[in-house]
Amino acid sequence: MKNIEKIKGLIAAPFTAFDKNNEINLEMVTEQQAMYKRNGLSGVFICGTTGESSALTMAEKKQLFKKWSEYKTPEFKVIAFLGGTCVKECRELAQYAQECNLDAVSITAPYYFKPANVNALALFCQEVASAVPDMPFYYYHIPIFTGVNFPMINFLEIADELIPNFAGIKYTYENMMDYQLCLNFKNKKYNILWGRDEMLLPALSIGAVSAVGSTYGYMTPVYLKVIALFKENKLEESAQMQLQAIRFIQLLDKFGGGCGKAFMKSIGFDLGKHRLPVMNLTNDQYAELTQLLEKMDFNQYCNK
């Protein structure tokens, strides 16, 4: 596969909406995508970590693939995350993503029976990617969840030869040296999507042109300002905007994984609760978070 288009700009990792019965709420997809487009995002990475992929059934993922496909445009890409454990399920989902005419697919490393080495990881990816040879394929590097942490430059060297439809890496790790090597591999051949929202500015400084993250879905204006100021060489101002984003991200650490949907609720998007084992905020915690957001003037920085 040749001439794979690179995606530039910010890509949201959407939360999966659930209704009061904890079933997926497809109607919220319509509202989410409209808000993302209004705020200048370049696309979405659906059913990933933020989207609670491991808590979704295959049937639910297919429903989400189909619904999101209604809103893809040349300017708004939809990348579908397939999983990372069962090859047959990943291949089936990849083929369904292709039927839905989505823009790309992605998998993580297997996180139960882990690959013994980088060659085994590349072979696993090849088997999934070969199910959709005409569709761009991304590897999702997120060692904190998978426990698989090979240097991605080594993986890239193998994937370059092994996977014709290889498009790049969603790089969610802090190894900036490895990330920069990947960015510059074969004259910047691949789309290396940065995956740490709290470190967007450092990534921009070494060449990042695209990024995927959950907080872009509700704080797009902050990050677009980080990028704009960086491009204007106003580095101190850009750093201050990045710091503002970090202060909000600190609240995720304070309140835990169930805090993300509370941020969305604060801007008018009630996406329901998280599925177990992710813990939801108690009423008291939500009230405390709301007070903190008001004190920090979140309305000045959030999506509109």
Structural descriptors:
eight-stranded parallel beta sheet, globular, 304 residues, alpha/beta, TIM Barrel
Architecture overview:
The model has no long low-confidence stretch (mean pLDDT 96). This protein has twelve helices and eight strands. It is α/β, with parallel strands linked by helices and 304 residues long. The chain has an eight-stranded parallel β-sheet. Helix 2 packs parallel to helix 3 and helix 4 (118-129) crosses helix 6. It starts with 8 loop residues before the first strand and ends in a 9-residue tail after the last helix. Helix 2 links the parallel strand 2 (43-46) and strand 3. It has a domain at 9-219: Aldolase class I (TIM Barrel). The chain is 44% helix and 13% strand.
Oligomer: single chain
Q: Calculate the terminal CA-CA distance, rounded to whole Å.
A: 39 Å
What sort of overall outline do the alpha carbons produce when their principal axes are compared? globular
* CATH homology superfamily name of the domain at 9-219: Aldolase class I
Helix coverage percent of residues? Answer: 40-55%
